[in-house]
Amino acid sequence: MPDHLKRILFVDDEPALLAGLQNALYKDRRRWDMVFAPGAEAALTECRKRPFDVVMSDMRMPNIDGAMLLGAIKDEFPGTVRIMLSGHCDREAIVRALPSIHQLLSKPCDVPTLREAIERGLEGADVARDSKLCAIICGIDNLPTPPDLYFVLTRLLQSPSSSVADVADVVTRDPALAAKVLQLVNCAYFGSGQKTASIQAAVSRLGTECLRYIALTASVFSTQATGTASKAVEAEQQHSMRTANLARALADPAIRDEAFASALLHDVGRIAFALARSAELAELDRRVKLGEDPTAVELELLGLTHSDVGARLLAIWGLPSSIVDAVQFHHAPGSAPAARHRLAGIVHVADAVADAGRAGPQLDTASLEQAGCAHLVVGWLAAAARVA
What we know:
globular, alpha/beta, Hypothetical protein af1432, 20 helices, 3 domains, single chain
């Protein structure tokens, strides 16, 4: 099997199900190196021989169940994308396992859905960058929320009288909360099977009861950030909120929800930097204030840009590709896939306006021209000026 193929491990204690899965995925054998393990013990043995890019496990297995297996893989091989298959009767075990899971699928699950989950987990993966990305995002299952918003959300979820609108209002004010809620609702287990980029719709679909149960049972929302990282997280939260409000004002109604969510999440890579590379982030900010190019300094200090890191993290979490693309290309909208040109352009302009100093927004006019958005910029800037 060629070494360049991504490695996928499927785990189930029922041989007939594994055989059926192997037959169903036969045509994928030329693009993925697939291994089928009959149980958790066999799966761990295979992982220790040579790590996998994606592990997809059933929940119910004897001795070591899927939650325990994926928890062990998280500890030993944190760079592996972890996907679980489960029936709704396993709700309590599943919720407790959420910190170890990137994507969660309902059983029974059709083959196209399985393929899509794997493809989303691999989206944005690149051999030359994988080790660098892993060093930044490995082990990040939650993004920290500023303490004030975290405690507001906690109080709301503990109150039986809180409404969906109350909870959505808090979630739309923070990229960490928004990313986690969108991750949950876009997995087939908690969601309806339809992808959504709307944060309000995500909160509504999950419902306050489900969110309350998840928040009280699993550590999926977090305030864990200290010192320099804590200050960076709060600064990013404020900048992202302003960018999101601007993007919503610039966007046409058809893409307003996508624009808001994409802008709110556009700098989650910087939050990841704050958690994993706080010293380098402080040096980055110092040099940028002296006038150096941010992208060039990121590549020098970290070997990656915050756009690379944010897009990869959100792809692993199974967020809609429209958001992933906008996050990846918010500094270069002309390089985005054609279908995302306008969305990436909106986030680019909103980000520049939100970050503008006395010299005004620093726009990449050439990239906006390449994206076919240059003629819209004057109107976008006028709309941004009307936002309080």
